[in-house]
Structures are given as C-alpha cells and as structure tokens.
Amino acid sequence: MVNIAVLVKQVPDTNSKIQIVGDRVDLSSVKMEISPYDEFAVENALQHKESEGGTVTAITVGNDGADKVLKGVKALGVDNIVRLDYDGYMDSNGLQSVLADEIKSGGYDVVYCGKSAADTGAGSTGPGIAERLGWGSISNATEIKFGEGLMVTSPAEGGDAIASLSLPAVVSCDKGSIKVRKSNVKGIMMAKRAQVDVKSVSPPSPTITIVSEVMPPAKPAGKKYEGAQSAQTVAQLLRDEANVI
Amino acid sequence: MTDTIVIAELSKGKINATTNELVTAAGMLGSNCTLVVPCTESSVANDAGSITGITKVIAAKSSVFETYDAAAWAEALDSASPSGIVITSASAQSKDLAARLAARRSVSVIQDVTGIQNGTLSTPIYSGKAIQNVSLNGDAVVTIRANIFRPAENSGNCDVQVLDTTGNLATALQEMVQRASERLDVSEANIIVSGGRGMGTPANFSHLEEIADKLGAAVGASRAAVDTWEEIPHSMQVGQTGKTVNPNLYIAVGISGAIQHLAGMRSSKYIVAINKDAEAPIFQHADYGIVASWEDALPVLSNSLASLLG
Which helix (H) or strand (E) holds A137? Predict the structure, then answer.
C-alpha cells in the first residue's frame, strides 16, 4: 500500500487579466482555480493508487479560500484533503519547510506536484522538498510507470531520458500524454460534505523582501503593413533595423 | 559585498555561452565571483579562466556529472561551492538544480531573473503578465534567464582549481530517447516560427518548417493548435501552460494572440505577426505586423529570406 501525497495550489485562471493596485498585484476580482500542471500531478497520483493500491492525500497551503481546490480534487477521487493554514507571505524556504515537515510527519512514500505553479512559474517546490527530505526526484515528468519504484520519462538534452527512481521520491509533472479525469455528480456531492483537515504551521521568516509588483514595460507601437508583398519589407527590416537575421 | 558563485551551464559537454551572461549578472549582485564547472574531465574547464570578471575557477570533477541526477548534482556542487549568492542559468535542468541547492542551504531561491538594478531582482510572475521586484536579505540562489544580460568578455586570466567531488545518485538512467527530428526545441532556439489554429491543418506546419530551416529556427505552436491537432505535440506549445520563451525573433503565424499565449512569448526581442485579421490582438505586441493570409505571405517571406541569407 503506497502512501501518496499530491501538492495542489490555487492560482488565477490563466485566461485572466492581472491588475496592479498600488505596488501589488490585485487578485480580488480574479477567478481562482487549480494550477494547470497540478491537475496532471493529481491524475498521476490517482493512477499510482489504482496501479499499486494505497491512499492519496492532497495538500495545499493557504487560507480557507484554498479549500475550493481541495474539494475539487476530492471530487476526482483523492482520499484525504489537508490544508496548511497560513495567510501571510512565505518565501520558497518557508513554503518548502512547512511542506517537508508535513510530508515527513505523514509518512508518505511519494509526492507528486505540478512542474511549476501558474503564478510564480518557479518550479522550485518539488525538488526543494525532495532535497530537504533527502529523497530522489525527477522534474518535468511526461510519463510515469508505476511498480516497486517508478520509471519516469522527462526531457533531457536532445531528447527524453527514461530513468528509474526508487521510493521515497518526489515527481513534478508536466502535461505529457495522460488525460486528466473529470469529476462526476456523485463525486462532487461527496466532496461537498468532506472535511478539510486544517493544520497550523509556523514557517521560518522570509529571507527576501518583495519590493514591488509592476506591469511589464509597454512596448512601443510596431509597424503594421497591409498585404502579403509587405513580407519582403519586413524581411529587410529584420536584417537592417532589428539585426536579428 | 557578498561573494558570488556561478555554476557554469554546459551543453554537449562544453561550457555554454550563457555562462558569460551569468558572470555579468554575478557582477551586479556581489563581488569575488567563483565559477564552478560541473565536469567528468577537468579539461572542460581549461578555458573558463578567461571569462572576464571571475576571480577563480573550480572544476568540480565527479562521475555523477555524466548524466543529470538532481540529488547527486546538488550534493556535489554544494560541497564544491563556497558560501555566497549562487547563480545558475534558468534552463529547466538548472532551475531544478537551483531549487535543491537553495534547499540544502536553507535559503530562498529566486527563479527566472530578467533584470537586476541596485540590488533589486526582477522576475516575471503570472507568466510575464506582471513583474515582481525582490531584494535579498542574505545569501540566496538565483537563476538567470538567457539572452537578457550582456555576456562577459573573454579577456581575463585566472587559475583553475580541480576539486574531486561526489554525491549519491537517486536515479538510474535506463534509456535516452533521441528526439525524432534534428530541429531545435523552442526552449533552446534564438528564432522561433510559431503557428496557430489559423494554419488550418497540422500538415500546413510544413510551411513553417520551411521558413524555420532557412533561419535555423525552432517551430512552435499556440495552445489552440496543440489542443486541436494531435499531430502538434505539447512540447511545441508556447504560452502559460506551455513553454515561456524569449528568443531574438518570434514569428507568429495565424496566431490571434490569446492572453495566455502572449504570456509565454511577449519578452521576445522582436515579434513578427502574420494574420489575415487586422484586429487580432497579436498585432498590438508585434514590432512588425503583416496583415495577410499566411498562404499569401509565407511564400513572399520565404523568397525574401532566401535572397537575404543567400
């Protein structure tokens, strides 16, 4: 029986506009949803359970607004849902510390997470937790075969590497070829009644300071031409003005 | 000033030119820069001492560097690196390594830095829809996006120290599957030609490949194209749920410019858009826009490139 953890995070819908109020991003009017790559992590966790037997626990960090994401994965078939309750800012060191502590105390054999979250895009959490636990890890997995250990495909220079990874281990998941399952009405009804296991945490203080958040600098207006023949003009400009070809 | 450590970026067993960009970034974050070169043979580091701005080269020699293993690489490079701000490239592999190095040292990691000014580091958040500026209160690990910082010159001369290192492997490579085509991956390319659903059929991507071959470019795709056609793999997808790229030149063909696509390519140095819809949002971000169908515009572009590039 494999004790499986999957890390999930709520982020703004990737189709949403990001606005700045003062010197911080304002998410108050943005629709939040599960980070896209976390969906592949959840699917891999569920497939691992179906292949080898065990339980799947989804873990998130945040305030009670994040419960929606936990209920969403509960509806897909995750057994337990845990929220590490925290409302302030954590740097990567703080976040990984509290998650590594939770993974250790939960006695997990394997941790799945998305290759990066759609907000920071950093991709630090999976490998960072593995390092703190002294576990092996593979990032950006596109295919996983389950057995005693794992056989994981991930991109490498010039192609793909297929490597074996013994448990305990952390795998961060890219899209790959798996299809993620959808929840059904029964699952959604069950998830509504499910209890979130809320735990308090006290992360170490951040060692970086967010100075400001700003919009990217606007690009000066470009040149726009009508008609296919202008491709010749553009090719010449790429050579003479942009110096990129 | 804090000491800095640059981990050399390697490709095909040689020190990659982006290493010089990392040294420039290091000079903006601290002083006394040590270049650490992960290698199986120390000869790889022979010429590294010529990079201007470094004070020392450590050739960290170990058999673990034969193939990438996150745990072993982090252990070996941590032991070879002095304390200070550690700087690596923001390639997928180096970001993974950087996260582990930071965790080993219980410090923060700042990924994908695109600017440094007076000690403040800028990184894109929400895939570049906004920029976050952070300052460091002590040591950290920092990864630097390629193609942004001016590369340091090669007019220096410092010693290379060979250091035997080791680490415990956590993975065992079973098989390397070479990419079917010789074509560059979008994450490695200086020029990208991307197609969207406006290409009509996946077979029409061959027209993009023809242009790409002339330019030595990679071929990319929008999410709409990847979602619509099985023949277009996710590995080609540029955007918030695909790859974030910043090439010198990005040519978007039949791509309308959905917000999540723009997020993945807006930091490209030059953007060319070809679209028959003059109102397509992509034109607001293009340096050079061509309002025409790709069927009409690509042959003209192809001929022009042929005569320009000889």
Answer: strand A136-141
Dump pLDDT digits (tens) for B263-292.
889 889 999 999 999 999 999 999 999 999
- Tell me if B103 and A91 make a contact (CB, 8 A cut-off): no
Are B218 and B80 in the same domain? no
B204-234 pLDDT, tens digit per residue, is 999 999 999 999 999 999 999 999 999 999 8
What SS3 class is residue B185? coil
Taking the C-alpha atoms of residue A112 and residue B222, their distance in angstroms, rounded to an integer, is: 27
Most distant CA atoms of chain A, gap in Å: 66
Task: Establish if B178 touches chain A: CB-CB under 8 angstroms.
Answer: yes
CB B23 within 8 A of CB B88: no
ipTM score: 0.94
Q: Percentage of chain B surpassing pLDDT 70?
A: 99
Domains of chain B: total: 2
Domain range holding A150?
A: 2-200
Rounded to a whole number of angstroms, the distance from the CA of B163 to the nearest CA of chain A is 23
CA distance B274 to B254: 6
B292 contacts A227? CB cut-off 8 A: yes
Could you report the per-residue pLDDT of B4-47, keeping only the tens digit for each?
Answer: 999 999 988 899 999 999 999 999 999 999 999 999 999 999 99
In a domain, A214, yes or no: no
Residues B127 and B212 in one domain: no
Query: Distance between CA B66 and CA B73 in Å, rounded?
Result: 10
Residue B64 lies in a domain: yes
Are A244 and B249 inside 8 Å of each other by CB?
A: yes
Whether A242 maps to a domain, the answer reads: no
Write out the residue range of the structural domain in which residue B226 sits.
Answer: 186-309
Does B287 reach chain A within 8 Å, measured CB to CB?
yes
- Tell me how close the Cα of A49 comes to any Cα of chain B, in angstroms: 22
Chain B CA closest to residue A129:
B103
